[in-house]
User: Which sequence fits this backbone?
C-alpha cells in the first residue's frame, strides 16, 4: 500500500524506509539529549490514563489513538526493540516487533494529530512529556522526508529562498507595508508611529510572525505605537525579519538554523536583544533555543512584545485609557508562552487596564486549552476539519461560555486557528484580535506622537 | 510446610532483596549519570530548578489529585500509601529485617496495619476495575499493567489472611508461604518492570526538562552522520 497521510507530502522516497528511519533515530539519539528521556520513560510508563482526561483532542475524538500515552507508545515500541538490551534479547528469542513502512505510516499520521500543547505533561504523575516525544518522532520522520508539505515549503523559503521568510515577502515589500502602516495609523488613530529599518546599535531587533505584515496591520501598528510612545531603541532588520520557526514543529536541525538567523541579524545590526512580536511558538523558540544554539549565556536576551508593553505600563512610560474597550473581552493563552508559566498575568494586566468588561476563560494560564492548531497543524489547511471540529472543540466551548465578543489571541497561529474555530462552531459574532490591536485603540499618545486626524467626510458620515 | 516457609523467608527472601536493592541502585545511578551527562552537554545549562522541584513535589505529595477522575485517583493514592508503608513498617517485616534496620525503627500498630492492608487491597481492586471499565484506561492497559496489580493484590491478600488465622477461610501457613513467595517475586520484578518508578520518580520531571536542553551542535552532528550537511530543505 502506498504511503498515505491526511496531510500533503512532497514526493517521498520509500526505499529502505524502516532502515533509514532507524539510522536517523540512532543518529539523533547519539547527538541529542532525548536518550535519557526515552530511557526513563520506557521503564516507568505506568499508562494510568490521566493524560487522556486532560487531552482536548482525545476528549473530542474519543479515539484511543489520540491518547497521549498511546501515541508515545508508538515511538517507545521502536526504541525498546532497537535501542535497548532487552529489545535485542527479545528479538533473538524470536517473535519480536519489526519496524515496517506501514508502522512508520501510522506514526506519521498520529504525530500530526497531536497539537504538541503539552497539557498532558501537567497531569502526568511521572512528568512524562508526550509533547516532547511527539516532537522527537517528527524530527526522525523529517530526516526520512516525512514532513507536511506546508511546513516544509515555508521553511525552505525561509532558509534557502530569496526572501528568507515563510511568507515570501521581499524586504522592499515589507518596507512598503511599514510605510503604509505609518500613514494608516496617522489617518485612523491620529498618531505618528515609526518602523525603523536597519538602525545599527538599536537595543531591540523586532521579529514578528512575518504573516503579520500581510494579515495583522492593527497588531503591527499597536506594536509600533507602544515602541514609539515609550521611546524604545528598536529596529527591523531588512536581511531577516521573520519570527516564525517551524523547526520547533518538525526538526531540531531547522530550529537551530532559524534561531541562528535571528541571532545573526542581531549581530549584524550590533543590537542587544531580540524582540519577538505576538506569536507563541516564535517566542518560545527564540526564548528557549537562541541560548541553546547561539552561545548559551552570551546569546542575546529575548523579550516578547507583551512583556515589553507590560513593563512600560507598570513603569508609567506607557499611558493607556481605562475602559477604552466597551465590549466583553476574553483572552486565550497561547500554549507556547503560557504552559511554562512565562507569560500569563502580563497580558491580563494590560487588558484589565483598558477593558470595561474583561472575563477569563476556565481553565486558564498554565492549564489553558490549546486552540487546536498547535504544533504547526494550523498551517496544514487540508486538515482543517480535524483541527476545528476535534482539536478546537474544547476551546470553542470555552469561548462560548465567556460570552465575550472579542477574543484576544496574541499569536499569529492561534489567531488563524481561532477564526476558523469560531466560523466552524457558530461563533461568528466573536472577533479574534491581537493584544496590541486593542492597545492601539487605548493608547494615550505622548505629545510627540500626536497629529491632527485629517477630516474624512465619508468616515465622519 | 515449615521448611518451605523457612526457605522462602530465609535464603530466597535475601536473594530477592539483594537483587532488588542492587538493580534499583543501578537503575538510579544510571539515570543520574545519563541526566548529568545530558545536562553537561546542553547548549543552555540553565535549568528551571524551582519549577522542576515544584512539579516533583506536587506529585510526591499529590494533594491536588482529586480534581481529575476523583475515584480512580483516590484509589491510586491510597494504594501507593499502603504499598509504601506496609513493607517497611509492618511488625513482621521489621522483624525480618532485624540487623538491617536500626533498633529504633517504628512499627505500625496492628489495627493500622490491617487498615492499610485492606485499604490498599480495595484500592488495587478499584484500580483494576477502572482499568476494565474506563475506555481510555482499558485501551492503555497491557498484560504487565494488570499482572503487576494482581501480584500486589495477592501479596496483600495472602498477608492479611496469614496474620488472621482465626478468621481466615484458608490455611494460615499456606497463606504465609504464598505471601512470602509472592512478595519475593514482587521484589525481584521491581527493578525490571514499571514498578521501578518507585526509585526513579524523583528524577522523571527533571528528565523531561533536560530533554529540551539540546546540545548546541546536535542538529549539525546529526546532519553530518546522515550526510545531509549541504542538503537543501
Assistant:
Amino acid at each position: 500500500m502506498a504511503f498515505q497521510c491526511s496531510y500533503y507530502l512532497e514526493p517521498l522516497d520509500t526505499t529502505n524506509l524502516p532502515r533509514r528511519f532507524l539510522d536517523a533515530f540512532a543518529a539523533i539519539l547519539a547527538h541529542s539529549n532525548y536518550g535519557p528521556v526515552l530511557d526513563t520513560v520506557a521503564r516507568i510508563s505506568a499508562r494510568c490514563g490521566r493524560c487522556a482526561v486532560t487531552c482536548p483532542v482525545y476528549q473530542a475524538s474519543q479515539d484511543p489513538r489520540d491518547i497521549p500515552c498511546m501515541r508515545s507508545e508508538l515511538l517507545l515500541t521502536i526504541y525498546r526493540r532497537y535501542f535497548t538490551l532487552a529489545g535485542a534479547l527479545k528479538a533473538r528469542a524470536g517473535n519480536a516487533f519489526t519496524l515496517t513502512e506501514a508502522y512508520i505510516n501510522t506514526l506519521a499520521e498520529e504525530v500530526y494529530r497531536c497539537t504538541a500543547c503539552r497539557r498532558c505533561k501537567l497531569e502526568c504523575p511521572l512528568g512524562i512529556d508526550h509533547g516532547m516525544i511527539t516532537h522527537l518522532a517528527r524530527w526522525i520522520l523529517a530526516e526520512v522526508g516525512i514532513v507536511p508539505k506546508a511546513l516544509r515549503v515555508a521553511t525552505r523559503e525561509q532558509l534557502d529562498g530569496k526572501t528568507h521568510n515563510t511568507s515570501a515577502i521581499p524586504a522592499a515589500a515589507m518596507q512598503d507595508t511599514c510605510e503604509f502602516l505609518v500613514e494608516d495609523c496617522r489617518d485612523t488613530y491620529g498618531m505618528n508611529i515609526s518602523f525603523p529599518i536597519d538602525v545599527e546599535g538599536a537595543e531591540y531587533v523586532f521579529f514578528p510572525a512575518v504573516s503579520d505584515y500581510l494579515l495583522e496591520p492593527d497588531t503591527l501598528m499597536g506594536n509600533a505605537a507602544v515602541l514609539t510612545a515609550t521611546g524604545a531603541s528598536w529596529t527591523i532588520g531588512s536581511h531577516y525579519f521573520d519570527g516564525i520557526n517551524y523547526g520547533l514543529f518538525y526538526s531540531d536541525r531547522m530550529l537551530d538554523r532559524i534561531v541562528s538567523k535571528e541571532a545573526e541579524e542581531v549581530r549584524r545590526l550590533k543590537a542587544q536583544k531580540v524582540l519577538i512580536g505576538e506569536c507563541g511558538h516564535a517566542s518560545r523558540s527564540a526564548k528557549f533555543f537562541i541560548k541553546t544554539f547561539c552561545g548559551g549565556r552570551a546569546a542575546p536576551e529575548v523579550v516578547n512584545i507583551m512583556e515589553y508593553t507590560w513593563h512600560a505600563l507598570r513603569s508609567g512610560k506607557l499611558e493607556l485609557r481605562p475602559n477604552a474597550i466597551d465590549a466583553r473581552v476574553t483572552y486565550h493563552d497561547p500554549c507556547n508562552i503560557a504552559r511554562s508559566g512565562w507569560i500569563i498575568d502580563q497580558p491580563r494586566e494590560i487588558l484589565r487596564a483598558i477593558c470595561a468588561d474583561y472575563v477569563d476563560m476556565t481553565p486558564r494560564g498554565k492549564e489553558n486549552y490549546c486552540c487546536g492548531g498547535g504544533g504547526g497543524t494550523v498551517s496544514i489547511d487540508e486538515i482543517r476539519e480535524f483541527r476545528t471540529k476535534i482539536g478546537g472543540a474544547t476551546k470553542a466551548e470555552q469561548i462560548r461560555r465567556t460570552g465575550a465578543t472579542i477574543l484576544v489571541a496574541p499569536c499569529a497561529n492561534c489567531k488563524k486557528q481561532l477564526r476558523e474555530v469560531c466560523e466552524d462552531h457558530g461563533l461568528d459574532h466573536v472577533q479574534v484580535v491581537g493584544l496590541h490591536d486593542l492597545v492601539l485603540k487605548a493608547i494615550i499618545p505622548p505629545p510627540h506622537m500626536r497629529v491632527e486626524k485629517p477630516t474624512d467626510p465619508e468616515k465622519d458620515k | 510446610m515449615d521448611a518451605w516457609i523457612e526457605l522462602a523467608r530465609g535464603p530466597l527472601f535475601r536473594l530477592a532483596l539483594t537483587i532488588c536493592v542492587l538493580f534499583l541502585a543501578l537503575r538510579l545511578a544510571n539515570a543520574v549519570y545519563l541526566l548529568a551527562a545530558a545536562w553537561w552537554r546542553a547548549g543552555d545549562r540553565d535549568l528551571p530548578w524551582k519549577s522542576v522541584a515544584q512539579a516533583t513535589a506536587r506529585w510526591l505529595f499529590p494533594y491536588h489529585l482529586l480534581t481529575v477522575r476523583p475515584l480512580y485517583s483516590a484509589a491510586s493514592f491510597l494504594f501507593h500509601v499502603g504499598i509504601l508503608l506496609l513493607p517497611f513498617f509492618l511488625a513482621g517485616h521489621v522483624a525480618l529485617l532485624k540487623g538491617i534496620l536500626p533498633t529504633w525503627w517504628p512499627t505500625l500498630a496492628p489495627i493500622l496495619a490491617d487498615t492499610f492492608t485492606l485499604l490498599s487491597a480495595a484500592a488495587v481492586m478499584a484500580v483494576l476495575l477502572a482499568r476494565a471499565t474506563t475506555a481510555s484506561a482499558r485501551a492503555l492497559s497491557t498484560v504487565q499493567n494488570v499482572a503487576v496489580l494482581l501480584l500486589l493484590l495477592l501479596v496483600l491478600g495472602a498477608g492479611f489472611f496469614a496474620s488472621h488465622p482465626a478468621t481466615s477461610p484458608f490455611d494460615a501457613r499456606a497463606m504465609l508461604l504464598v505471601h512470602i513467595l509472592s512478595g519475593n517475586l514482587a521484589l525481584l520484578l521491581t527493578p525490571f518492570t514499571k514498578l521501578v518508578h518507585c526509585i526513579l520518580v524523583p528524577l522523571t520531571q527533571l528528565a523531561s526538562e533536560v530533554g529540551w536542553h539540546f546540545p548546541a551542535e546536535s542538529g549539525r552532528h546529526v546532519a553530518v552522520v546522515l550526510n545531509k550537511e549541504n542538503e537543501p530543505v
In short: Chain B has one domain: 2-32+57-212. The two ends of chain B are 72 Å apart (CA to CA).
